[in-house]
From TrEMBL:
It comes from Tindallia californiensis. The chain crosses the membrane at residues 12-37. The keyword Transmembrane applies. Keywords: Membrane, Transmembrane, Transmembrane helix. InterPro entries: TadE-like_dom. The keyword Transmembrane applies. Residues 9-49 form the TadE-like domain. This is TadE-like protein.
């Protein structure tokens, strides 16, 4: 007798059943996006810190002139690398800086004498000796991602730990002209 009234009850029942599932899926998408964003940002921050940290000019000059390597390790190296990641990187402001930890850090600054050869435009070869200043950076960096929504906390957990090993070695300076006594 009242077909419209029966259909209205069916629509409300469908709405009540589907809405929590849709809301849970929507919140899960937000959390997966947040965790992915935090992971990529952390990877970039670690990579940036390993490439951009530089020793002071006094340390560089001393290592080049004297040939004695300079090693930063332990808490000193951890503090330097953490500072590079947190203070001198414009994107690190999107990370929770209290959840970043640096362990087993070691920064090794050493001199190497090398011969470099260059091909000139007329196919002649130019050879020169020089002092190369190399920087080797290594550390274990940890970060904790915390999901945003209750659904993410329930499904992903309260904390998602990420670990990255930082290791870079590269030449930061070349000075030509090696004295004979080297």
């Amino acid at each position: 007798m009242y077909p419209l009234k029966e259909k209205r009850g069916q629509a409300i029942l469908e709405y009540v059943l589907v809405t929590p599932l849709f809301l849970a899926a929507f919140l899960m998408v937000i959390d997966v996006g947040w965790v992915s964003y935090q992971r990529v940002l952390f990877d970039y921050t670690v990579r940036h810190a390993s490439w951009e940290w530089r020793p002071s000019s006094d340390d560089r000059d001393q290592v080049i002139e004297d040939g004695i390597a300079k090693v930063y390790q332990g808490e000193d190296a951890s503090t330097m690398l953490r500072k590079q990641m947190t203070e001198e990187n414009e994107l690190s402001g999107h990370l929770n800086l209290t959840d970043i930890s640096v362990e087993n850090a070691r920064v090794y600054l050493y001199r190497d004498i090398r011969t470099q050869s260059y091909r000139c435009y007329n196919d002649s070869e130019y050879v020169r000796m020089g002092r190369m200043l190399n920087l080797e950076t290594m550390a274990d960096v940890n970060y904790i991602i915390r999901p945003l929504t209750p659904v993410g906390i329930k499904l992903l957990g309260d904390e998602i730990p990420i670990e990255r090993s930082m290791y870079k070695i590269y030449n930061i300076q070349f000075r030509g002209g090696v004295p004979d006594n080297d």
